[in-house]
Amino acid sequence: MLKYLLEKEFKQIFRNAFLLRMLIIMPLMTIVLFPYVTNQEVRNLKLSVVDHDHSVFSSRLIRKADASAYFQLVSVSSYAQALGEVESGDADIILEIPRDFERDMQRGEPGQVMLSANSVDGTRGALGSQYLSSIIADFGTELREEAGITASPQLRLSATYRFNPTLDYKIFMIPGLIVVLLTLLCCALTALNIVGEKEAGTIEQINVTPVPKSLFILGKLLPNWIIGLFALTFGMTFAWAIHGLVPAGSLLTILLFAGCYILAASGMGMVISNYSSTMQQAMFVMFFFLIILLLTSGLFTPIASMPGWMQACTVVNPLKYLAEVMRLVYLKGSGTGEMLPQLFALCAFAVVFNVWAVVSYRKSL
Amino acid sequence: MEEKVIWADGLTKSFGAFTAVDHISFEVRRGEIFGFLGANGAGKTTAMRMLCGLSLPTSGRGEVAGFDIATQQEEVKKHIGYMSQKFSLYEDLKVWENLRLFGGIYGLKSRAIREKTDEILSDLGFESERNTFVRALPLGWKQKLAFSVSIFHEPKVVFLDEPTGGVDPMTRRQFWELIYRAADKGITVFVTTHYMDEAEYCDRVSIMVDGKIEALDSPRALREQFRAENMDDVFQQLARKAKRTSD
Protein backbone atom coordinates (compact mmCIF):
# COMPACT_ATOMS: atom_id res chain seq x y z
CA MET A 1 0.00 0.00 0.00
CA LEU A 2 2.92 2.29 0.83
CA LYS A 3 4.14 1.90 -2.71
CA TYR A 4 1.01 3.54 -4.07
CA LEU A 5 1.13 6.37 -1.56
CA LEU A 6 4.78 7.09 -2.37
CA GLU A 7 4.06 6.94 -6.09
CA LYS A 8 1.35 9.54 -5.63
CA GLU A 9 3.48 11.87 -3.51
CA PHE A 10 6.41 11.75 -5.91
CA LYS A 11 4.18 12.42 -8.90
CA GLN A 12 2.71 15.41 -7.11
CA ILE A 13 6.17 16.69 -6.19
CA PHE A 14 7.55 16.42 -9.70
CA ARG A 15 4.49 18.18 -11.10
CA ASN A 16 4.81 21.02 -8.66
CA ALA A 17 6.95 23.57 -10.46
CA PHE A 18 6.88 25.95 -7.51
CA LEU A 19 8.27 23.34 -5.16
CA LEU A 20 11.07 22.37 -7.52
CA ARG A 21 12.04 26.01 -7.95
CA MET A 22 12.10 26.48 -4.19
CA LEU A 23 14.40 23.53 -3.90
CA ILE A 24 17.03 25.44 -5.88
CA ILE A 25 16.29 29.01 -4.85
CA MET A 26 16.26 28.42 -1.11
CA PRO A 27 19.74 26.85 -0.90
CA LEU A 28 21.00 29.53 -3.25
CA MET A 29 19.66 32.35 -1.08
CA THR A 30 20.63 30.91 2.28
CA ILE A 31 24.09 29.69 1.40
CA VAL A 32 25.20 32.22 -1.21
CA LEU A 33 23.74 35.44 0.17
CA PHE A 34 23.09 35.01 3.87
CA PRO A 35 26.73 34.53 4.94
CA TYR A 36 27.39 38.13 3.92
CA VAL A 37 24.33 39.36 5.73
CA THR A 38 24.83 37.50 8.97
CA ASN A 39 28.35 38.84 9.33
CA GLN A 40 28.68 40.14 12.88
CA GLU A 41 32.13 41.65 12.59
CA VAL A 42 32.26 45.35 13.36
CA ARG A 43 33.73 47.15 10.40
CA ASN A 44 33.47 50.48 8.67
CA LEU A 45 33.02 52.48 11.85
CA LYS A 46 32.68 56.13 11.06
CA LEU A 47 35.33 57.98 13.01
CA SER A 48 35.01 61.69 13.53
CA VAL A 49 38.31 63.30 14.51
CA VAL A 50 38.54 66.65 16.25
CA ASP A 51 42.16 67.73 16.07
CA HIS A 52 42.98 70.82 18.15
CA ASP A 53 46.71 70.25 17.94
CA HIS A 54 47.42 70.13 14.22
CA SER A 55 50.86 68.71 14.89
CA VAL A 56 53.00 66.01 13.32
CA PHE A 57 52.06 63.61 16.11
CA SER A 58 48.34 64.24 15.85
CA SER A 59 48.29 63.75 12.11
CA ARG A 60 50.33 60.56 12.46
CA LEU A 61 47.77 59.22 14.91
CA ILE A 62 44.92 60.13 12.59
CA ARG A 63 46.61 58.46 9.62
CA LYS A 64 47.19 55.36 11.68
CA ALA A 65 43.53 55.12 12.60
CA ASP A 66 42.50 55.78 9.03
CA ALA A 67 44.81 53.07 7.76
CA SER A 68 43.04 50.36 9.75
CA ALA A 69 40.22 48.48 8.06
CA TYR A 70 37.87 49.24 10.91
CA PHE A 71 37.55 52.98 10.54
CA GLN A 72 36.41 55.44 7.96
CA LEU A 73 37.43 58.98 8.68
CA VAL A 74 34.41 61.21 8.43
CA SER A 75 35.46 64.74 9.25
CA VAL A 76 37.88 66.86 11.12
CA SER A 77 35.98 69.58 12.88
CA SER A 78 34.90 71.01 16.23
CA TYR A 79 33.68 68.76 19.04
CA ALA A 80 30.20 70.23 18.92
CA GLN A 81 29.98 69.50 15.23
CA ALA A 82 31.24 65.97 15.82
CA LEU A 83 28.54 65.42 18.46
CA GLY A 84 25.97 66.64 15.98
CA GLU A 85 27.18 64.05 13.54
CA VAL A 86 26.89 61.29 16.11
CA GLU A 87 23.33 62.39 16.75
CA SER A 88 22.45 62.40 13.09
CA GLY A 89 24.05 58.98 12.74
CA ASP A 90 26.91 60.09 10.52
CA ALA A 91 29.60 59.22 13.05
CA ASP A 92 30.06 56.29 15.45
CA ILE A 93 33.10 57.38 17.41
CA ILE A 94 34.70 60.73 18.20
CA LEU A 95 38.42 61.05 18.79
CA GLU A 96 39.38 64.41 20.25
CA ILE A 97 43.04 65.39 20.30
CA PRO A 98 43.66 68.33 22.65
CA ARG A 99 45.91 71.31 22.02
CA ASP A 100 49.50 70.75 23.10
CA PHE A 101 49.21 66.99 22.58
CA GLU A 102 52.59 66.86 20.82
CA ARG A 103 54.28 69.27 23.21
CA ASP A 104 53.19 67.32 26.28
CA MET A 105 54.46 64.09 24.83
CA GLN A 106 57.77 65.52 23.80
CA ARG A 107 58.22 66.82 27.33
CA GLY A 108 57.70 63.29 28.54
CA GLU A 109 54.32 64.00 30.07
CA PRO A 110 51.51 61.57 29.30
CA GLY A 111 49.62 62.68 26.20
CA GLN A 112 45.86 62.70 26.51
CA VAL A 113 43.19 62.00 23.92
CA MET A 114 39.47 61.68 24.41
CA LEU A 115 37.33 59.01 22.86
CA SER A 116 33.53 58.98 22.84
CA ALA A 117 31.52 56.19 21.25
CA ASN A 118 27.89 56.05 20.17
CA SER A 119 26.61 53.01 22.05
CA VAL A 120 23.06 52.68 20.80
CA ASP A 121 24.37 49.46 19.33
CA GLY A 122 26.37 48.30 22.33
CA THR A 123 28.55 45.84 20.44
CA ARG A 124 29.50 48.41 17.86
CA GLY A 125 30.29 51.03 20.50
CA ALA A 126 32.31 48.73 22.74
CA LEU A 127 34.25 47.00 19.98
CA GLY A 128 34.87 50.31 18.22
CA SER A 129 36.38 51.97 21.25
CA GLN A 130 38.45 48.85 21.92
CA TYR A 131 39.89 48.90 18.41
CA LEU A 132 40.64 52.60 18.68
CA SER A 133 42.22 52.21 22.13
CA SER A 134 44.55 49.56 20.84
CA ILE A 135 45.52 51.75 17.90
CA ILE A 136 46.31 54.60 20.30
CA ALA A 137 48.27 52.28 22.58
CA ASP A 138 50.24 51.03 19.58
CA PHE A 139 50.98 54.59 18.62
CA GLY A 140 52.32 55.23 22.14
CA THR A 141 54.65 52.26 21.90
CA GLU A 142 55.85 53.44 18.51
CA LEU A 143 56.71 56.86 19.88
CA ARG A 144 58.54 55.39 22.87
CA GLU A 145 60.59 53.16 20.64
CA GLU A 146 61.51 56.08 18.42
CA ALA A 147 62.61 58.02 21.47
CA GLY A 148 64.75 55.07 22.48
CA ILE A 149 62.89 54.55 25.68
CA THR A 150 62.67 50.88 26.28
CA ALA A 151 60.33 51.01 29.13
CA SER A 152 59.93 48.28 31.71
CA PRO A 153 59.85 44.64 30.50
CA GLN A 154 57.06 44.18 27.95
CA LEU A 155 54.63 41.36 27.59
CA ARG A 156 53.85 40.29 24.05
CA LEU A 157 50.81 38.18 23.47
CA SER A 158 50.53 35.89 20.51
CA ALA A 159 47.28 34.05 19.84
CA THR A 160 46.70 31.27 17.33
CA TYR A 161 43.13 30.61 16.43
CA ARG A 162 42.45 26.95 15.97
CA PHE A 163 39.88 25.56 13.51
CA ASN A 164 39.22 29.00 11.98
CA PRO A 165 42.69 30.57 11.80
CA THR A 166 41.62 33.71 10.00
CA LEU A 167 38.58 34.16 12.24
CA ASP A 168 36.45 34.30 9.12
CA TYR A 169 32.88 34.81 10.17
CA LYS A 170 31.47 33.12 7.07
CA ILE A 171 33.15 29.84 7.93
CA PHE A 172 31.38 29.91 11.26
CA MET A 173 28.01 30.89 9.82
CA ILE A 174 27.70 28.66 6.75
CA PRO A 175 27.38 25.34 8.58
CA GLY A 176 24.72 27.01 10.72
CA LEU A 177 22.94 28.38 7.68
CA ILE A 178 22.69 24.88 6.25
CA VAL A 179 20.65 24.07 9.36
CA VAL A 180 18.43 27.09 8.69
CA LEU A 181 17.95 25.92 5.12
CA LEU A 182 16.92 22.39 6.12
CA THR A 183 14.58 23.71 8.78
CA LEU A 184 12.81 26.22 6.57
CA LEU A 185 12.39 23.86 3.65
CA CYS A 186 11.43 20.63 5.41
CA CYS A 187 9.23 22.22 8.00
CA ALA A 188 7.38 24.45 5.53
CA LEU A 189 6.80 21.73 2.95
CA THR A 190 5.24 19.28 5.38
CA ALA A 191 3.38 21.98 7.28
CA LEU A 192 1.64 22.88 4.03
CA ASN A 193 1.21 19.35 2.75
CA ILE A 194 -1.47 17.70 4.89
CA VAL A 195 -3.38 20.92 5.45
CA GLY A 196 -3.25 21.42 1.68
CA GLU A 197 -5.07 18.12 1.29
CA LYS A 198 -7.60 19.30 3.84
CA GLU A 199 -8.22 22.46 1.83
CA ALA A 200 -8.49 20.55 -1.44
CA GLY A 201 -10.87 18.05 0.20
CA THR A 202 -8.79 15.09 -0.94
CA ILE A 203 -8.02 14.07 2.62
CA GLU A 204 -11.71 13.16 2.99
CA GLN A 205 -11.39 10.51 0.30
CA ILE A 206 -8.27 9.18 2.03
CA ASN A 207 -9.88 9.20 5.47
CA VAL A 208 -12.75 7.03 4.30
CA THR A 209 -10.32 4.34 3.11
CA PRO A 210 -8.80 1.80 5.48
CA VAL A 211 -5.30 3.25 5.00
CA PRO A 212 -3.43 3.01 8.34
CA LYS A 213 -2.49 6.38 9.78
CA SER A 214 1.16 5.43 10.13
CA LEU A 215 1.42 4.49 6.46
CA PHE A 216 -0.17 7.72 5.36
CA ILE A 217 2.30 9.72 7.47
CA LEU A 218 5.21 7.58 6.28
CA GLY A 219 4.08 8.20 2.72
CA LYS A 220 4.44 11.92 3.39
CA LEU A 221 7.65 11.66 5.41
CA LEU A 222 9.82 9.65 3.03
CA PRO A 223 9.49 11.91 -0.04
CA ASN A 224 10.12 14.90 2.16
CA TRP A 225 13.20 13.24 3.58
CA ILE A 226 14.58 12.84 0.10
CA ILE A 227 13.80 16.46 -0.72
CA GLY A 228 15.66 17.44 2.45
CA LEU A 229 18.70 15.41 1.44
CA PHE A 230 18.69 17.15 -1.94
CA ALA A 231 18.54 20.51 -0.23
CA LEU A 232 21.47 19.46 1.97
CA THR A 233 23.45 18.44 -1.09
CA PHE A 234 22.69 21.70 -2.88
CA GLY A 235 23.55 23.73 0.21
CA MET A 236 26.87 21.98 0.74
CA THR A 237 27.69 22.24 -2.94
CA PHE A 238 27.06 25.98 -2.96
CA ALA A 239 29.14 26.38 0.21
CA TRP A 240 32.01 24.69 -1.57
CA ALA A 241 31.57 26.32 -4.97
CA ILE A 242 30.97 29.87 -3.78
CA HIS A 243 32.79 30.06 -0.47
CA GLY A 244 35.29 27.27 -0.92
CA LEU A 245 34.12 25.69 2.31
CA VAL A 246 34.31 21.92 2.67
CA PRO A 247 33.76 20.00 5.89
CA ALA A 248 36.88 19.02 7.78
CA GLY A 249 35.06 15.90 8.95
CA SER A 250 33.39 13.14 7.03
CA LEU A 251 30.42 13.56 4.72
CA LEU A 252 28.85 10.44 6.15
CA THR A 253 28.78 11.99 9.59
CA ILE A 254 26.93 14.99 8.22
CA LEU A 255 24.57 12.72 6.32
CA LEU A 256 23.78 10.72 9.44
CA PHE A 257 23.02 13.71 11.64
CA ALA A 258 21.28 15.79 8.98
CA GLY A 259 19.25 12.72 7.96
CA CYS A 260 17.92 12.39 11.51
CA TYR A 261 17.31 16.11 11.67
CA ILE A 262 15.32 16.21 8.42
CA LEU A 263 13.04 13.50 9.80
CA ALA A 264 12.54 15.56 12.95
CA ALA A 265 11.88 18.82 11.08
CA SER A 266 9.44 17.10 8.70
CA GLY A 267 7.65 15.52 11.63
CA MET A 268 7.35 18.90 13.27
CA GLY A 269 5.82 20.32 10.08
CA MET A 270 3.30 17.49 9.93
CA VAL A 271 2.26 17.99 13.53
CA ILE A 272 1.58 21.65 12.74
CA SER A 273 -0.30 20.62 9.61
CA ASN A 274 -2.48 18.19 11.55
CA TYR A 275 -3.57 20.82 14.02
CA SER A 276 -4.28 23.46 11.38
CA SER A 277 -7.36 23.74 9.24
CA THR A 278 -6.05 26.21 6.66
CA MET A 279 -2.67 26.77 5.03
CA GLN A 280 -2.67 30.31 6.36
CA GLN A 281 -3.01 29.06 9.90
CA ALA A 282 -0.29 26.47 9.39
CA MET A 283 2.12 29.08 8.02
CA PHE A 284 1.44 31.45 10.87
CA VAL A 285 1.98 28.81 13.53
CA MET A 286 5.08 27.51 11.77
CA PHE A 287 6.74 30.91 11.58
CA PHE A 288 5.89 31.63 15.19
CA PHE A 289 7.72 28.50 16.32
CA LEU A 290 10.52 28.80 13.78
CA ILE A 291 11.47 32.27 14.93
CA ILE A 292 11.65 31.13 18.54
CA LEU A 293 13.63 28.04 17.60
CA LEU A 294 16.04 29.98 15.37
CA LEU A 295 16.71 32.65 17.98
CA THR A 296 17.36 30.12 20.73
CA SER A 297 19.35 27.71 18.59
CA GLY A 298 22.77 29.25 19.17
CA LEU A 299 23.08 29.93 15.46
CA PHE A 300 23.20 33.68 15.80
CA THR A 301 24.01 34.26 19.46
CA PRO A 302 25.94 31.98 21.81
CA ILE A 303 23.68 29.86 24.03
CA ALA A 304 26.26 30.19 26.82
CA SER A 305 25.45 33.90 27.10
CA MET A 306 21.74 33.29 27.61
CA PRO A 307 20.25 33.30 31.11
CA GLY A 308 20.27 29.93 32.85
CA TRP A 309 16.55 29.26 32.46
CA MET A 310 16.74 30.01 28.76
CA GLN A 311 19.72 27.71 28.38
CA ALA A 312 17.60 25.01 29.99
CA CYS A 313 14.81 25.68 27.48
CA THR A 314 17.15 25.18 24.53
CA VAL A 315 17.42 21.50 25.45
CA VAL A 316 14.16 20.94 23.56
CA ASN A 317 15.32 22.82 20.47
CA PRO A 318 16.31 20.37 17.74
CA LEU A 319 18.07 23.12 15.77
CA LYS A 320 20.56 23.59 18.55
CA TYR A 321 21.91 20.05 18.20
CA LEU A 322 22.34 20.07 14.47
CA ALA A 323 23.89 23.57 14.60
CA GLU A 324 26.49 22.25 17.05
CA VAL A 325 27.11 19.19 14.95
CA MET A 326 27.47 21.04 11.66
CA ARG A 327 29.98 23.48 13.12
CA LEU A 328 31.95 20.73 14.80
CA VAL A 329 32.11 18.61 11.66
CA TYR A 330 32.77 21.48 9.29
CA LEU A 331 35.38 23.28 11.38
CA LYS A 332 36.88 20.71 13.76
CA GLY A 333 36.25 17.55 11.81
CA SER A 334 34.61 15.82 14.75
CA GLY A 335 33.47 12.23 14.32
CA THR A 336 30.21 10.57 15.34
CA GLY A 337 31.78 9.16 18.51
CA GLU A 338 32.36 12.64 19.92
CA MET A 339 28.80 13.73 19.25
CA LEU A 340 26.73 10.85 20.58
CA PRO A 341 24.59 13.06 22.85
CA GLN A 342 23.57 15.11 19.82
CA LEU A 343 22.84 11.95 17.84
CA PHE A 344 20.58 10.61 20.58
CA ALA A 345 18.83 13.95 20.88
CA LEU A 346 18.18 14.19 17.14
CA CYS A 347 16.93 10.60 16.97
CA ALA A 348 14.64 11.28 19.90
CA PHE A 349 13.21 14.36 18.18
CA ALA A 350 12.68 12.41 14.96
CA VAL A 351 10.79 9.67 16.82
CA VAL A 352 8.75 11.99 19.03
CA PHE A 353 7.63 14.34 16.27
CA ASN A 354 6.70 11.57 13.86
CA VAL A 355 4.83 9.52 16.43
CA TRP A 356 3.06 12.71 17.40
CA ALA A 357 2.24 13.30 13.72
CA VAL A 358 0.67 9.83 13.47
CA VAL A 359 -1.31 10.29 16.67
CA SER A 360 -2.51 13.79 15.84
CA TYR A 361 -3.65 12.76 12.35
CA ARG A 362 -7.36 12.10 12.86
CA LYS A 363 -9.19 9.96 10.36
CA SER A 364 -12.43 10.22 12.32
CA LEU A 365 -13.66 13.18 14.26
CA MET B 1 -35.15 -12.69 6.14
CA GLU B 2 -33.09 -10.38 3.95
CA GLU B 3 -29.61 -9.38 4.97
CA LYS B 4 -29.32 -5.99 6.67
CA VAL B 5 -26.28 -4.12 5.42
CA ILE B 6 -26.84 -0.94 7.37
CA TRP B 7 -28.74 -0.47 10.57
CA ALA B 8 -28.90 2.46 12.93
CA ASP B 9 -30.56 2.64 16.29
CA GLY B 10 -31.01 6.01 17.98
CA LEU B 11 -27.99 7.41 16.18
CA THR B 12 -27.24 10.93 17.42
CA LYS B 13 -24.59 13.53 16.78
CA SER B 14 -24.36 16.75 18.73
CA PHE B 15 -21.98 19.64 18.29
CA GLY B 16 -22.14 21.44 21.61
CA ALA B 17 -25.78 22.39 22.22
CA PHE B 18 -26.72 21.73 18.60
CA THR B 19 -28.06 18.28 17.75
CA ALA B 20 -27.35 17.78 14.07
CA VAL B 21 -28.66 14.22 13.99
CA ASP B 22 -31.33 13.36 16.51
CA HIS B 23 -31.94 9.69 17.32
CA ILE B 24 -32.37 8.27 13.86
CA SER B 25 -33.14 4.58 13.42
CA PHE B 26 -33.45 2.67 10.16
CA GLU B 27 -32.28 -0.37 8.25
CA VAL B 28 -31.04 -0.83 4.72
CA ARG B 29 -31.13 -4.21 3.01
CA ARG B 30 -28.53 -5.69 0.74
CA GLY B 31 -28.73 -4.54 -2.87
CA GLU B 32 -31.19 -1.77 -2.07
CA ILE B 33 -30.98 1.77 -3.43
CA PHE B 34 -31.76 3.82 -0.38
CA GLY B 35 -32.53 7.50 -0.86
CA PHE B 36 -31.64 9.75 2.05
CA LEU B 37 -33.56 12.97 1.59
CA GLY B 38 -33.76 16.18 3.52
CA ALA B 39 -33.41 19.93 3.16
CA ASN B 40 -30.01 21.61 3.48
CA GLY B 41 -28.95 21.50 7.10
CA ALA B 42 -31.31 18.67 7.98
CA GLY B 43 -28.36 16.51 9.03
CA LYS B 44 -27.96 14.19 6.03
CA THR B 45 -24.24 14.66 5.56
CA THR B 46 -23.53 14.35 9.27
CA ALA B 47 -25.50 11.11 9.44
CA MET B 48 -23.71 9.77 6.39
CA ARG B 49 -20.31 10.69 7.80
CA MET B 50 -21.10 8.71 10.94
CA LEU B 51 -22.04 5.68 8.88
CA CYS B 52 -18.77 5.96 6.94
CA GLY B 53 -16.64 6.06 10.05
CA LEU B 54 -15.56 9.66 9.47
CA SER B 55 -17.41 10.95 12.47
CA LEU B 56 -18.05 9.38 15.86
CA PRO B 57 -21.67 9.19 17.06
CA THR B 58 -22.44 11.08 20.25
CA SER B 59 -24.88 8.34 21.21
CA GLY B 60 -26.83 5.51 19.68
CA ARG B 61 -25.52 2.56 17.74
CA GLY B 62 -25.09 1.54 14.18
CA GLU B 63 -23.57 -1.14 12.01
CA VAL B 64 -22.40 -1.04 8.44
CA ALA B 65 -21.45 -4.22 6.59
CA GLY B 66 -21.52 -6.02 9.92
CA PHE B 67 -19.13 -3.71 11.77
CA ASP B 68 -19.86 -1.27 14.55
CA ILE B 69 -19.52 2.33 13.37
CA ALA B 70 -18.37 3.55 16.77
CA THR B 71 -15.73 0.95 17.55
CA GLN B 72 -14.73 -0.70 14.27
CA GLN B 73 -14.44 2.29 11.98
CA GLU B 74 -11.40 1.02 10.10
CA GLU B 75 -13.18 -2.31 9.46
CA VAL B 76 -16.21 -0.44 8.19
CA LYS B 77 -13.98 1.55 5.84
CA LYS B 78 -12.67 -1.62 4.19
CA HIS B 79 -16.15 -2.55 3.04
CA ILE B 80 -17.61 0.75 1.91
CA GLY B 81 -17.12 3.28 -0.83
CA TYR B 82 -17.73 6.98 -0.36
CA MET B 83 -18.23 9.88 -2.66
CA SER B 84 -18.26 13.18 -0.88
CA GLN B 85 -20.35 16.20 -1.75
CA LYS B 86 -17.21 18.12 -2.61
CA PHE B 87 -15.17 16.56 -5.39
CA SER B 88 -12.19 15.01 -3.66
CA LEU B 89 -10.01 13.17 -6.11
CA TYR B 90 -6.49 14.40 -6.81
CA GLU B 91 -6.68 17.09 -9.48
CA ASP B 92 -2.96 16.95 -10.14
CA LEU B 93 -3.08 13.23 -10.88
CA LYS B 94 -4.25 11.71 -14.14
CA VAL B 95 -7.44 9.68 -14.44
CA TRP B 96 -5.64 6.32 -14.35
CA GLU B 97 -3.39 7.48 -11.52
CA ASN B 98 -6.34 8.26 -9.29
CA LEU B 99 -7.82 4.83 -9.98
CA ARG B 100 -4.46 3.19 -9.31
CA LEU B 101 -3.91 5.09 -6.06
CA PHE B 102 -7.26 4.16 -4.54
CA GLY B 103 -7.13 0.62 -5.89
CA GLY B 104 -3.73 0.27 -4.22
CA ILE B 105 -4.94 1.71 -0.93
CA TYR B 106 -7.76 -0.87 -0.83
CA GLY B 107 -5.16 -3.57 -1.27
CA LEU B 108 -5.69 -4.53 -4.91
CA LYS B 109 -2.73 -5.94 -6.78
CA SER B 110 -1.11 -3.98 -9.58
CA ARG B 111 -2.39 -6.33 -12.21
CA ALA B 112 -5.94 -6.38 -10.91
CA ILE B 113 -5.85 -2.60 -10.85
CA ARG B 114 -4.76 -2.46 -14.50
CA GLU B 115 -7.54 -4.80 -15.60
CA LYS B 116 -10.15 -3.05 -13.55
CA THR B 117 -9.02 0.35 -14.84
CA ASP B 118 -9.40 -0.78 -18.46
CA GLU B 119 -12.83 -2.18 -17.70
CA ILE B 120 -14.05 0.98 -15.96
CA LEU B 121 -12.66 3.34 -18.58
CA SER B 122 -14.35 1.39 -21.37
CA ASP B 123 -17.64 1.21 -19.42
CA LEU B 124 -17.60 4.97 -19.00
CA GLY B 125 -16.39 5.60 -22.53
CA PHE B 126 -13.39 7.31 -20.96
CA GLU B 127 -10.57 5.51 -22.78
CA SER B 128 -9.41 8.69 -24.45
CA GLU B 129 -9.20 10.46 -21.08
CA ARG B 130 -6.98 7.87 -19.42
CA ASN B 131 -4.01 10.26 -19.38
CA THR B 132 -5.98 13.45 -18.76
CA PHE B 133 -5.33 15.35 -15.56
CA VAL B 134 -8.44 15.20 -13.44
CA ARG B 135 -8.46 18.98 -13.07
CA ALA B 136 -9.08 19.25 -16.81
CA LEU B 137 -12.26 17.12 -16.79
CA PRO B 138 -15.73 18.69 -16.93
CA LEU B 139 -17.73 18.44 -13.70
CA GLY B 140 -20.05 15.71 -14.91
CA TRP B 141 -17.10 13.52 -15.87
CA LYS B 142 -15.41 14.19 -12.59
CA GLN B 143 -18.51 12.99 -10.76
CA LYS B 144 -18.65 9.80 -12.80
CA LEU B 145 -14.98 9.20 -12.15
CA ALA B 146 -15.42 9.83 -8.43
CA PHE B 147 -18.25 7.29 -8.40
CA SER B 148 -16.10 4.75 -10.22
CA VAL B 149 -13.32 5.28 -7.69
CA SER B 150 -15.77 4.79 -4.83
CA ILE B 151 -16.86 1.37 -6.14
CA PHE B 152 -13.47 0.37 -7.58
CA HIS B 153 -12.78 -2.11 -4.80
CA GLU B 154 -16.30 -3.59 -5.04
CA PRO B 155 -17.50 -2.55 -1.60
CA LYS B 156 -20.62 -3.89 0.06
CA VAL B 157 -22.10 -0.42 0.41
CA VAL B 158 -21.47 2.82 -1.38
CA PHE B 159 -22.36 6.16 0.18
CA LEU B 160 -23.06 8.97 -2.28
CA ASP B 161 -23.44 12.48 -0.92
CA GLU B 162 -25.34 14.56 -3.47
CA PRO B 163 -23.53 12.89 -6.33
CA THR B 164 -25.42 14.75 -9.05
CA GLY B 165 -25.21 18.24 -7.59
CA GLY B 166 -24.61 20.85 -10.27
CA VAL B 167 -24.61 18.57 -13.32
CA ASP B 168 -26.92 18.67 -16.32
CA PRO B 169 -30.03 16.42 -16.62
CA MET B 170 -28.40 14.30 -19.29
CA THR B 171 -25.41 13.51 -17.10
CA ARG B 172 -27.69 12.93 -14.12
CA ARG B 173 -29.51 10.28 -16.09
CA GLN B 174 -26.27 8.60 -17.08
CA PHE B 175 -25.16 8.77 -13.49
CA TRP B 176 -28.26 6.94 -12.32
CA GLU B 177 -27.60 4.27 -14.89
CA LEU B 178 -24.24 3.76 -13.21
CA ILE B 179 -25.96 3.54 -9.85
CA TYR B 180 -28.37 0.88 -11.16
CA ARG B 181 -25.49 -1.06 -12.62
CA ALA B 182 -23.71 -1.03 -9.26
CA ALA B 183 -26.89 -2.13 -7.49
CA ASP B 184 -27.24 -5.01 -9.96
CA LYS B 185 -23.81 -6.20 -8.91
CA GLY B 186 -25.10 -6.40 -5.35
CA ILE B 187 -23.66 -3.15 -4.06
CA THR B 188 -26.02 -1.44 -1.67
CA VAL B 189 -26.42 2.23 -2.55
CA PHE B 190 -27.03 4.89 0.07
CA VAL B 191 -27.61 8.18 -1.68
CA THR B 192 -28.56 11.71 -0.69
CA THR B 193 -30.14 14.02 -3.21
CA HIS B 194 -32.14 17.19 -3.62
CA TYR B 195 -33.75 16.09 -6.84
CA MET B 196 -37.15 14.58 -6.21
CA ASP B 197 -37.25 12.85 -9.58
CA GLU B 198 -34.18 10.97 -8.39
CA ALA B 199 -36.02 10.01 -5.22
CA GLU B 200 -38.49 8.16 -7.42
CA TYR B 201 -35.63 5.97 -8.70
CA CYS B 202 -34.89 4.69 -5.19
CA ASP B 203 -36.25 1.48 -3.72
CA ARG B 204 -36.95 3.22 -0.45
CA VAL B 205 -36.43 6.74 0.79
CA SER B 206 -36.22 8.40 4.17
CA ILE B 207 -36.93 12.09 4.64
CA MET B 208 -35.04 13.94 7.34
CA VAL B 209 -36.37 17.09 8.92
CA ASP B 210 -34.37 18.92 11.60
CA GLY B 211 -32.15 15.94 12.38
CA LYS B 212 -35.00 13.42 12.65
CA ILE B 213 -36.33 10.91 10.16
CA GLU B 214 -39.92 11.96 9.56
CA ALA B 215 -40.86 9.45 6.88
CA LEU B 216 -39.42 6.20 5.57
CA ASP B 217 -40.89 3.92 2.93
CA SER B 218 -40.97 3.20 -0.77
CA PRO B 219 -41.76 6.23 -2.94
CA ARG B 220 -45.10 4.73 -3.89
CA ALA B 221 -46.14 4.07 -0.28
CA LEU B 222 -45.07 7.57 0.74
CA ARG B 223 -47.14 9.13 -2.03
CA GLU B 224 -50.15 7.20 -0.82
CA GLN B 225 -49.51 7.98 2.82
CA PHE B 226 -49.27 11.72 2.17
CA ARG B 227 -51.94 11.69 -0.54
CA ALA B 228 -49.41 13.31 -2.85
CA GLU B 229 -49.03 13.27 -6.61
CA ASN B 230 -45.30 12.92 -6.50
CA MET B 231 -42.31 12.83 -4.17
CA ASP B 232 -41.82 16.57 -4.49
CA ASP B 233 -45.20 17.10 -2.88
CA VAL B 234 -44.37 14.64 -0.08
CA PHE B 235 -41.12 16.46 0.53
CA GLN B 236 -42.78 19.89 0.60
CA GLN B 237 -45.37 18.75 3.15
CA LEU B 238 -42.65 17.50 5.49
CA ALA B 239 -40.04 20.19 4.92
CA ARG B 240 -42.56 22.90 5.71
CA LYS B 241 -42.48 21.71 9.33
CA ALA B 242 -38.78 22.45 9.62
CA LYS B 243 -37.76 25.05 12.17
CA ARG B 244 -34.06 25.12 11.30
CA THR B 245 -33.03 27.65 8.73
CA SER B 246 -31.21 26.06 5.88
CA ASP B 247 -27.54 26.82 5.38
Give a written overview of the molecule.
The complex is a heterodimer of chains A (365) and B (247). By secondary structure, chain A is an alpha/beta fold. Chain A is elongated. Chain A has helices at 2-14, 17-37, 56-67, 79-87, 101-106, 122-146, 169-200, 202-207, 213-243, 251-275, 279-295, 308-313, 318-332, 340-360, and strands at 45-51, 71-76, 93-97, 114-117. Chain A has a 4-stranded mixed sheet with strand order 2-1-3-4, sandwiched between helices. The two termini of chain A are 24 Å apart. Chain A has 2 domains: 2-38 and 166-360, no CATH class; 45-146, abc type-2 transporter like fold (3-Layer(aba) Sandwich). Chain A has 14 helices and 4 strands. The longest helix of chain A has 32 residues, at 169-200. In chain A, strand 1 (45-51), helix 3 and strand 2 (71-76) form a beta-alpha-beta unit. The mean pLDDT of chain A is 90. With 247 residues, chain B is an alpha/beta fold. Chain B has one domain (31-56, 73-239): Rossmann fold. Chain B has helices at 44-51, 73-78, 95-105, 110-124, 139-150, 169-184, 196-201, 219-225, 231-239; strands spanning 4-15, 18-29, 33-38, 59-64, 67-68, 80-83, 157-161, 188-193, 204-209, 212-217. In chain B, strand 4 and strand 5 form a beta hairpin. The longest helix of chain B is centred in the last third of the chain and has 16 residues, at 169-184. Chain B is globular, with a radius of gyration of 18 Å. The N and C termini of chain B lie far apart (40 Å).
Q: Span between N and C termini of chain A?
A: 24 Å
Biggest β-sheet description of chain A: 4 strands, mixed
Approximate helicity band of chain A: 55-70%
Number of strands of chain A: 4
* Mean of all residue-level pLDDT scores of chain B: 92
The separation of the N and C termini of chain B measures: 40 Å
Number of domains of chain A: 2
Helix/strand class of chain A: alpha/beta
Percent helix of chain B: 25-40%
- Percent strand of chain A equals 5-15%
Class per helix and strand makeup of chain B: alpha/beta
